[in-house]
Amino acid sequence: MPNPIKYNKKYDKLTDEERELLEINKKSIADFVEQSTSISDIDYATRNAHAKTYAVAKGEFVIDKNVPEELQPFFDKEKYDLTIRFSNAHLKINKNKKDLPAYGFSVKIKDENGNLLANYPLVNFPLFPINSVSTFLKLFTSVNRFYVKKWSSFSLMIQILKIMPSIFTGSFLKNIIKLISKRNDFILSFDFHSVGAYKLGENMMKIKLKPRSIERHFGKKLKVKNSIKSYFKTHNFTADVLIQLCYDLKDQPINKLNVEWKNSPYIKIGEVKIDKNGLLNPASCDNEMLSFNPFESKIFFQPVGKIQKLRDEAYKVSIQTRRKMNKLLKYNK
C-alpha cells in the first residue's frame, strides 16, 4: 500500500460566509435547547440531536496484539476505559411513536488515570447526505427554527430539496436500501461508523465498529430501551474496532461524505467489550449531561473536515445551554 496522506489544516478551513452561517446556527441551537423541555415534553433540557438516551454503559477498549507497528504508538496500553451512550438521532424525544432506526453509539475513551483521550460519536449509517457546509447550516438552522418558532414546513422543505442531489449516489442509495431492510433489527446488531474522518497522528482515518454474533431479531417485540436492558442482563457484548486510512483523496475523500471510502483495507486495532450488567443509570444527571464533543480529544485524535469542524462550536453551545437550563430546572436525578 502507498504511504497515507498527511493531515493538512486546509481540509478544515471555513469561508467567511460559512462562519457567518455558523453563528446563526449556534443561536438556533441555543434556542432549541432552551425550549427542549416543552418540545419533548420532559423535565430536563436535551441535546438538539440524539436527544433520546436509550442506555449508558461502562466498557473496555482492548487493543489487538497484531496492530501494525507504525500504529502502535497511538495504542500503547493493553486496554482503556470506556463510557458508551446509546441514542436515537432525532432532535425530539418521541414517547409514543416507534423510533426511526437512526442510532448512535458514542464512545468516551479514558486512560487508567481517568484522563480523556478521545470522544467518538458513531452512528449506524456510514454516510452523510450533505457535502456543502452552507447547505447543511441552512438546513440545520431551519430544522431548529421549525421546532422552536413553529415555522411552516414550507421553508424547511425548500432546504431539504437542496440536499436531494447529494442523496442520489450509488453509495448512498445502497446504504439506504440496506438500512430499510434492517429497520426492525436489534440496535446492537448494527455496524457503527464515524461518518467523517479523524486524525490518527499525522494520518487520517475512518472508524467502523462491527459487533460480533448479535442476534438481529433479539427483543423484537420490545422497545429499543427495554431490548438493550434485557440483552445486558444475560449477555456480554463484543465488537471489532476497524479503521481505514486515507491514501488517495480520490478514493478516500475527506470533504465528500456521501460516498464510501474504497481501496483502503480495514485494519483491526482492537475490540470494544461491555460486560453483562454493565449498564449505568441513563437518567442520572451525570450521565444525561455527558458530552461527546470529538474536539475535546487529544490533538492526534481530533476530527478532520469542514462538516466535522462545525461540531466543535455546536457541541459547546449545546452543552453550555443544557448545563445552564438543567441547573435552573434543578435536574438532579
TrEMBL record:
<dbReference type="GO" id="GO:0020037">
    <property type="term" value="F:heme binding"/>
</dbReference>
<protein>
    <recommendedName>
        <fullName>Catalase</fullName>
    </recommendedName>
</protein>
<dbReference type="InterPro" id="IPR020835">
    <property type="entry name" value="Catalase_sf"/>
</dbReference>
